[in-house]
Amino acid sequence: MKKLTVRILIALIIAAMFLPALGGCKLFGKNDERYLAQIIARVGDTTITLGDFEAAYLNELDMQGVGYYGFDPDSPPSEYVSMIEGIKDNVFNNLIRKRVLELKAKEMEVYDRTKEDEAAGQEEYDKALDGLMENMVQKREDNNSQIKFAKEQEIKDDWKAKAEALGEDDEPIDVDASAKEEYEKWLAETDELMTEDEIKADAKEEYDQILADYDENYGLEKFLEDLTQSAQERRAFEAVDASVTDDITISADEIKAEFDKLVADQKEEYKTALPSFGLRWQFDQAKAVNKPVIEAKKQELKAEMADATEDQIDKALEDWKMETEDLLQEDPSFVLAFTPTGYRSVKHILVPLSDDAKALITEKRSEAAMAEDDDENEALLKEADAIRDEQLLAIIENAEGIVARAKAGEDFDALIDEIGRDYYLEREPNKTLGLPLCSESTGMPEDYMKAALALEKVGDTSQPLATDEGYYIIQYTTEINPGTSNLDDVSENIHDILLAEAKAARMEKMFEEWEADYKVKKFPRLLEKFKLNRGQYDAVG
Q: Could you give the CA distance from residue 503 to residue 491 in angstroms, rounded to a whole number?
C-alpha cells in the first residue's frame, strides 16, 4: 500500500472541503443514491459499487494533481483523454485487488484491527494537523519575505535612478550603501510586516477555521478513522504479501547474469544516446552522498528511541526519508553498470552583468533574429556584442580576482556560496554533484562547453569566460572514469531490483488464482458513462 506523506495529508485536509470543485458541482438528484449503489464488481460475497469507485476516483484525481491542469475530468481535452481513462482503469482494478487482499487477510486471520494500527493512525493524524499549522505559518512568513524583497528592490531602484540623474559636478552616490541604509531604517520602522506573535495568532485563527469547516463538511473523526483504516490495511496486506513472497531468493548467478546484460545494454545505448548518462550518473552518485546522511539519522533515531524495536526504528527512518529534503534524489530502479568515455563534472561561478545590461543585450539579439536582411542582422549582432563588451569591463576585475583565489587553492564550493549560485547550481543534484558533461551535452553555451572540456585535470580553473550573462569561471571538479562497474559495488542494487520483480511476478500470479477462488466478476460497462457532474436526472444508469 502507498503511504501518504504529511504533505499530501495536509493537501487532502484542505482540498476535501472543496472536492465538488475538482469535478465541478455535484447536484445530487433524487436517484443519486440509487446511481451510486450500482454494482461494478463482485468479489466473493462482497460488492464494489459506483459509490466506492467515485470516492477512490476523486482521491486519485487529487493525488495526481488533475485540478492543476484546469479542465473538467468528465470532458477532458483530447491530449488528456488517455490519462483520465488510465486513472479510471487503475482505480477500478485497484479497488478489486484491494478487496481481494482484504478477503485473503481475513482468511489468514491477520486483518482485525490492532492497537498498533490505532497508534499509527493517530500518529498520521497528529502529523497532518501539525503540518497544516506549519503550512499556515509558512504562508505568512513567505508573505513577509515577498514584501521585504519588493521593498528592497524598490529602494535600490530609487537610488539607482538618483545616481543616473546626477550631473557631472554632483557628488557620486554609493547606490548599494545608500539603499542598504534606507532599507534597514524601513525594516526597523515599518508596520507592513507581521510580527512573530501576529503570525502565530493569525495562522492559528485560519487553522482553527479550516479544521472547523473540515469537521462540518467531512468530519475529523472520520479523517482519523480513514487513517487508522489505512494503517490497518497496510499492515494486513503486508502480512499477506510476506506469506506469499518471503521464500523468494535471488542467487549470485542471477545477479551476475543481470549485471552482464546491463553492461551490454548500456554500452549499446550510449553509442547513440550518450547525453542520457549524465542524469543517471547523478542518480548513482546520490546513493553514495545519501548513505552517510541516512546512517547518521538512524543513529540519531536509535538514541531518541532507546526502548524501540529495530522495526520501529526502521519505520521511523523510512518516514523521515519520505519527508526530509536533506537527501538527493535517487533512482533505485537504475543500476550504473557501464560508464562511457568522455565524461566529467564541473562547477562554475557566474559573475553576472546587471539585469538592465542583460535585458538590453537580449533585446538587440532578438531584433537581430528578426532582421529583414543579413546586413541588418550583422549590424545588430555587432551592436549587442559592443554593449556586452562595454558592460563586461565593469566586472572583469572582480572575475579575475575570483580566478586568482580559486587557483590559490580556496575551496571552490565556498567561493560559490560566497558569490552566489546561478540557476544551474542552485538546485540539487547539480548543487552538490556539479554538471556532468560530455562533448554531446546540450543546455550550456558552446563556449562554456569548450572551456569546460579543455580543462586538463581535476582542480583546474578556467580564465573568465565572457558570455551574455556575465563571466563564467569553471572548475573541473570530478573525473568520471570510464569502464565497467565493479560487480560488488552494484550487486546489492541488482539483488533488490530482481527480488522486487520476482515478488511482483509471484503476487500477480497469486492474484489471478485468488480472483478465480473468489469468483471475481467485473461490470466495467457502468464506468464508460460515469460522470462526476451528474446533475438532476430521472433515469438511473
A: 18
pTM: 0.76
Mean pLDDT, to the nearest integer, of 262-267? 96
Which of 11, 219, 220, 229 has its CA nearest to residue 120?
Answer: 229
**Distance, CA of 459 to chain centre:** 32
Beta-sheet strands, E only, within 367-464: 435-437
Rg of the chain over Cα atoms, rounded to whole angstroms, equals: 30
Q: Are 440 and 275 in contact (CB under 8 A)?
A: yes
AA letter at 158: D
Question: How confident is the model over 48-106, as pLDDT tens digits?
Answer: 999 999 989 988 888 887 776 777 888 888 888 899 899 999 999 999 999 999 999 99
Comparing CA positions, the residue from 273, 265, 268, 266 lying closest to residue 441 is 273
Whole-angstrom distance, CA of residue 58 vs CA of residue 56: 6
CATH no., domain 344-353+395-479: 3.10.50.40
SS3 181: helix
26: cell is 455535484
User: Furthest-apart CA pair in the chain: how many Å?
Assistant: 96
Torsions phi, psi of 531, nearest 5? -135, 145
Q: Name residue, grid cell 477555521.
A: 209
CB 481 within 8 A of CB 227: no
Please determine, for residue 329, whether its predicted confidence score (pLDDT) is greater than 90.
Answer: no
- For residue 312, the model assigns a pLDDT of 87
Q: What is the pLDDT of residues 274-299, one digit of tens each?
A: 999 998 999 999 988 899 999 999 99
Residues 6+ apart with CB under 8 A from 482: 339, 340, 341, 342, 343
Which residue in this structure is represented by grid cell 563588451? 389
- Chain centre to alpha carbon of residue 505: 29
CA 218 – CA 222 distance, rounded (Å): 7
Q: Is 534 helix (H, G, I), strand (E, B) or coil?
A: coil
pLDDT-derived band at 172 (thresholds 50, 70, 90) equals confident
The segment(s) of the chain belonging to CATH 3.10.50.40 are 344-353+395-479
Grid-cell match 569502464, residue found:
483
Percentage of the chain surpassing pLDDT 90?
68
